[in-house]
Amino acid sequence: MPKSGSALELTTLAAIPLVMVLGNSMIVPVLPTMQKELNLTQFQVSLIITAFSFAAGLIIPFVGYLSDRFGRKVIIVPALILYGLGGIVAGLAAWLMDNAYTVILLARIAQGIGAAGTAPIAMALIGDLYSGAKESKALGLIEATNGLGKVLSPVLGSLLALLIWYAVFFAFPALCFLTALAVWFLIKEKKPGKPKPLNKYLASLKQVFKEQGGWLVTAFFVGSIGLFILFGVLFYLSDMLETQYKVDGVIKGLILAIPLMGMVTTAYITGGRIKQNKPLMRKIMLTGLLILTTSLVAVAFFKQLYVMIGLLTLGSIGTGLLLPCLNTLITGSVAKTERGMITSLYNSLRFLGVAVGPPVFSWLMSISHETLFFSVAGLAFFTLILTFFFIKPGGKGKTDSGKKEERPSTLFQKVPAK
């Protein structure tokens, strides 16, 4: 059994979000081919992604509760297995059936349910296993591998499509099963205590939001907006490369990887540096949002490809500064007994941000380039203001043992009555 914090344990934890991202994002490059091969409408093919994201977002809070009640590993391992089985079913349907769409769609829903029990619960597990600098480093690592999956997915998906379009469904199940085995045998999780009755559990959550809900809700919103902008920008860049510059396939995947690599590298470095220094986290978040806002304003004035890629990469670096700090603050904000639900709610909103980004960017693109980037820059600036006023270090919270420790403050400080 590896020691807590060992390279093998961290690698296993990092593989969980990587698997989640690969299973979804690798499909994106083959959607046009799928539409042609299965004779689908644009709406039908869009449901292949939407069904996955909707199912995941809907189920995440439930698996968060179950992980708080029964433990993290007993949720993560079956979730990874379900995720892999869904890919096999989808691949077999595409290979063997004439009218495979309905089965593929149902398999994607099953995969979404499986995905709900992967990365969100891994974040809670890290909060259980580590503290201090190790916790922030591990959270930065899983944010980086999440981004790395997004970097690799379009390239791998395009390469697999050269074999046959449904090869992507068969590509990652083995990784799912291997990761499930590694989690089960290599992660040493403390045995959960006696679970709280549901009414007491809900009362505890209510108390968490009563004491810390203001800043937590703000942090949830800021994180979802960060992902909304990141994926909206990738959608915009992908569309521009294909429609204006006639670049597609692996080359397009490599270009899209440039801003993502900026985010991945920054997230990994940031996670290793912030430790548990909450004033530093706040400064880094404000800096990241300022960089993001400035880069989006600048893009509104330029349409040259290389300049845009550079500015959008700069904005992604801002996102890479933001997310590891949010992850560390949110994961450390509550005791272990409610941590699964809190991190699950956060990740549910992140899923929503990812899902909403492309259609909103598509609508704004239809108006004008300037309208798109000035609007999104305004939204980024709004999150900067929220972070400045509402996410502040300080305050006290209770640990699992009942001892007091420093925690982020609530949104509003109570003013004594005169």
Structural account:
The protein is mainly alpha-helical and 418 residues long. It has a single domain (7-187, 197-406), classed as Growth Hormone, Chain: A. Helices cover 78% and strands 1% of the residues. The protein has helices at residues 7-25, 31-37, 42-70, 73-96, 101-116, 119-129, 132-161, 167-171, 173-186, 198-243, 249-274, 278-299, 305-331, 336-365, 369-390, and strands spanning 396-398, 404-406. A two-stranded antiparallel sheet has the order 1-2. Helix 1 (7-25) runs antiparallel to helix 6 (119-129), helix 1 packs antiparallel against helix 9 and helix 7 (132-161) packs across helix 13.
| Percentage of residues in strands | under 5%
pLDDT average, as an integer? 85
In which range does the helix fraction lie? over 70%
Question: Which second-level CATH architecture applies?
Answer: Up-down Bundle
**How are the strands of the largest sheet arranged?**
1-2
The general outline is globular
**Could you name the ranges where pLDDT drops below 50 across 5 or more consecutive residues?**
395-418
Question: What name does CATH use for the topology?
Answer: Growth Hormone, Chain: A
The value of Rg in angstroms is 21 Å
Give the number of helices.
Answer: 15
Number of separate structural domains = 1
**Secondary-structure element pattern, one letter each:** HHHHHHHHHHHHHHHEE
CATH H-level superfamily title: MFS general substrate transporter like domains
C-alpha termini separation: 59 Å
Question: Got a strand count?
Answer: 2
